[in-house]
Model the fold of this input.
Amino acid sequence: MEYHHEKPYLILASQSPRRKYLLEQAGLSFTVIPGSFDEDSVKLTQPEEYVKILARAKAGEISELYPDSWVIGADTIVSIAGMILGKPASPEQAGEMLRKLSGQTHQVFTGYAVCCKSGGKMISDAVRTDVHFKKLSEAEIAWYIQSKEPFDKAGAYAIQGLGTFLVRSISGSYTNVVGLPVCEIIEILIREKILGLRKEGGAVYEPLGGNTEI
Done:
């Protein structure tokens, strides 16, 4: 099955290298076009609703510019005991977050949106993963903060990086914790015929062209 569209046909509306990596690992071809949506303009609500609002806004912003393309938007937050943990602005904040998570189970919510403006499509939902941390010593917290990894990560850790040693177990989607629920995204892309399948040698994703960044 082949598709012929003006490029870019599939767009990732995110500057996150982790989301880009996940889609590449899934065999997708797409263009990266980050937006400039002001996340602070959205009032905090329940975690699931909050991340869905942000994901729709991010995807919608780029869809206005490329109405015939399919756009993927996403937003991820970490929540514990009803408190949302953002990205730490200092070593002190990173330490506070890691102490809150130490020995506890927290939730990672990723809202996602897949939309096409000209087709009148906006498909959006949120995925939750429960993550259980080991009990951290002060030495472990200090070492991890010194690695600099916590500072651009919600909740002050990266499960796919050095922060893997913090995690005792998870319940739910691993890729959701990294930043994008790949299973759900692929299901939508296939259902909407954005991706095709070939039969020979098994089902594989039909390529849409090389990845680019704008």
Remarks:
- The chain has one domain: 10-213.
